[in-house]
Amino acid sequence: MNSFDDLLAEASAADVTGWGFDWLAGRASEQRPPWGYAQLLAQRLDGVRAALDLDTGGGEVLGEAPRFPPLMCVTEAWPPNARKAQERLGPRGVEVIEVTPGTALPFADASFELVTSRHPVNPDWHEIHRVLRPGGHYFAQHVGPASAFELIEHFLGPLPRERQMREPQDEVAAAQAAGLTVTDLRTARCRMLFHDVGAVVWILRKCLWWVPDFSVHKYRAELLALDSQMRQGEPFVAHSTRHLIEARR
């Protein structure tokens, strides 16, 4: 294993745009939920003529689908990701639209048979309902409560209030309040392993909302503690939470 400072420098310089995680190969791993979201997404896209993917990142997950409907649109708020999505999906005829968080979706009412998302930042259920056609479906994989909090709280300390956020049943209630009928809800808790401190630095740079004030300088002591543990052959263990949700207008 490289020195502590070399690991920090390497991870600090690595690209973190998009939603690919190949850089972590051999450094960290995460169990996947049992339902296989990408495959289920491809099946649903194959059965409609107009679909919208929200918070698409760099289009990595959507790009796994072998076929798109005649009208396929995606939205993304972070400019570097939007550019990656355009490069990946634009040549396949997908309309990539850069949006501003918290604003209405730039589509007419009842535009889509299917609205999808993998790990939306903050699903706007009223807007999802508005752009869906009657009988249309929302199909998504969401991040659940207290996801990766063992790692987050290593840096920030206990976060009891934040641990209560993203509860699946709260999202079901919000979706139904917006006029949608939830037809499926599944949950999973998946093991995460971090084998070197560079993997931790990289993931905290990529998921910058986990530790919003993160820097290798500010949290050097916490990183040194992790590095010492990992050099003794003990990976850092955390758990991600996910839920699959499907709703019909």
UniProtKB/TrEMBL annotation:
A Pfam family in this protein? Methyltransf_11
- By its UniProt entry, which PANTHER family does this protein fall under? METHYLTRANSFERASE, METHYLTRANSFERASE TYPE 11 DOMAIN-CONTAINING PROTEIN
Q: Which domain of life is it from?
A: Eukaryota
Record protein name field: Methyltransferase type 11 domain-containing protein
Q: Which organism is it from?
A: Diploscapter pachys
Q: What are the residue boundaries of the Methyltransferase type domain, all occurrences included?
A: 52-139
Q: Which GO terms describe its molecular function?
A: S-adenosylmethionine-dependent methyltransferase activity
